[in-house]
Amino acid sequence: MKAKKILLVEDNPDDEALTLRALSKCGVVNEVDVVRNGQDAVDYLFAREKFQDRDAKDLPQLVLLDLKLPMLDGLEVLEIIRREELTCTLPVVIFTSSKEQSDLTKGYRLGVNSFVCKPINFAEFSESIRQLGLYWLLINEPPPKTY
């Protein structure tokens, strides 16, 4: 069985490093692909542009999506993910520092699976990542592939 991959969409190098360190620290050994803007996230998922050699049907098990991104913001990325047949059931967790009620509301209206505010404290940050990894990679039963 192929290892479950995570797509991390994060433009902040410090948050990227913290997330990767937290995943490693809590024993998540899944491959993590990182893209740093919203357009690259869409291109990655649909195997376009610089990701054209990737198999578009080889989707990640989970997308950890920041909101404040260059090119396309996280909510725009989520909207694209949800309207396309290939990705409409892909588990997406918004993992952001935004505490804006409007972001939370719009994220759920667009079909996000979970909305998690990034804790500032590293121990709490690591615990959030551990719980996300445990739930989405081990406990959650993903939708069946229909292609």
Explained architecture:
There is one protein chain. The protein is an alpha/beta fold and 147 residues long. The protein has a domain at 1-67 and 88-97 and 113-129: Response regulator (Rossmann fold, 3-Layer(aba) Sandwich). It is built from 5 helices and 5 strands. The protein is globular and about 35 Å long. The protein starts with 5 loop residues before the first strand and ends in an 8-residue tail after the last helix. The relative contact order is 0.18.
Tag the structure with descriptive keywords.
Rossmann fold, alpha/beta, 147 residues, 5-stranded parallel sheet, 39% helix, single chain
Layout of strands and helices, then pairs:
Blueprint: E1 6-9, H1 13-25, E2 32-35, H2 38-45, E3 62-65, H3 74-83, E4 92-96, H4 101-109, E5 114-117, H5 122-139
Parallel strand pairs: 1-2, 1-3, 3-4, 4-5
Task: Describe this structure in a few short sentences.
The chain has 5 helices and 5 strands. It has 147 residues and is of the alpha/beta class. Helix 1 (13-25) crosses helix 5 (122-139) and helix 2 (38-45) runs parallel beside helix 3 (74-83).
